[in-house]
Amino acid sequence: MNEGPLISIVMPVYNTAMYVDVAIQSIINQTYCYFELILINDGSTDQSLSILEKWVMSDKRVKLFSQENQGLSAARNKGLSLAKGQYIYFMDSDDILRADALSICLAYCEKQDLDFVYFDASVFADNSNESILKDFHYSRLKTSAYTVFSGPDALQQQLKADDFFSSACMYLIRKDILDRHGFEFERGIVHEDELFTVLLYLAADRVAYIPQQFFQRRVRPDSIMTSRLKLFNVKCYFIVAQRLKEYGKNYPDSKRIIELYLYRMLDAAVWKAHVLSIADRLKILLSVLTHWRKYVSFKTMGVLLFKKGFSNG
């Protein structure tokens, strides 16, 4: 007999043999038991695959699919295509989910008939790496809790309060909204959550915030999150911006919120680019002046060009 709506948990795995056991165990330990865990082995070259195979043998809720390395977006999309659940949760293979997360989030989604619920995250590191935690926080400080909003209104509230976090791991999503709108992750880029999550808000009718740190994010020096900024990162932000502009053309009611988001995202991305070489910074400045001038302040362009401490590579 079913215990409730099936939740599909999609976990891409690429060379995280040191951490993936703990991540999977945190899913197996969930107090809500009616789920499927879809593991996408994205061409791992370490011992990840053998670890995943052991979990498949030990728990019938765990399913495994292997593919050549195609990146996080493609792996998540594959998992989404295989998912049979009424709800979707995207889990990273080096992090931890609190044991009561699925139970509490699902109960609130069902009670309030939500398209998705969103929540906070804490951060942790290996003992030797605790100093890197100071630059990361994922707690909303001004967002109205346990209140149902439309997705656009919720996004606007968070943007104005500087409370928005795009990580897909901080959302439990009703699969129907993804199916109806054909939402997937943009392949070939990083910062794909910046696009996916904003589009999710823009399409949602009913969403709410639970002020709990259900997701526990591991901060480690060799991850995408902590790697040194490259020109490619900034180019990916520009791709996200272009996709959002295209969406706004098709859905004019979303334009005002998209504009608000682009002001914040692009100005911050260009400011961070001051660490790049002068050649790369000039390429970024040219793109800004050609396509994105209205979203980047004069102050930020000054930082891009003149702030000291950049790489000469």
Q: Could you explain how this protein is built, in words?
A:
The chain has about 325 residues and is of the alpha/beta class. It folds into 2 domains: about 5-220, Spore Coat Polysaccharide Biosynthesis Protein SpsA, Chain A (Alpha-Beta Complex), CATH 3.90.550; about 230-305, no CATH class. The protein is about 45% helix and about 15% strand. It contains 11 helices and 8 strands. It has an 8-stranded mixed sheet with strand order 3-2-1-4-7-6-8-5, with helices on both faces. The protein is globular. The termini are far apart.
What is the compact description of this entry?
Helices cover 43% and strands 17% of the residues. With 313 residues, it is an alpha/beta fold. Strand 2 (35-42), helix 2 (48-58) and strand 3 (62-67) form a beta-alpha-beta unit.
Name the features.
single chain, 313 residues, 8-stranded mixed β-sheet, 43% helix, globular
Radius of gyration: 20 Å
Quote the CATH topology of the largest domain.
Spore Coat Polysaccharide Biosynthesis Protein SpsA, Chain A
CATH superfamily of the largest domain, by name, is Spore Coat Polysaccharide Biosynthesis Protein SpsA, Chain A
On the 0-100 scale, what is the average pLDDT?
Answer: 93
Strand portion: 15-25%
The N- to C-terminal Cα distance equals 61 Å
Reported for the largest beta sheet, the result is: 8 strands, mixed
Task: Write down the CATH class of the largest domain.
Answer: Alpha Beta
Give the helix/strand class.
alpha/beta
In percent, how helical is the residue content? 40-55%
| Order of strands in the sheet with most strands | 3-2-1-4-7-6-8-5
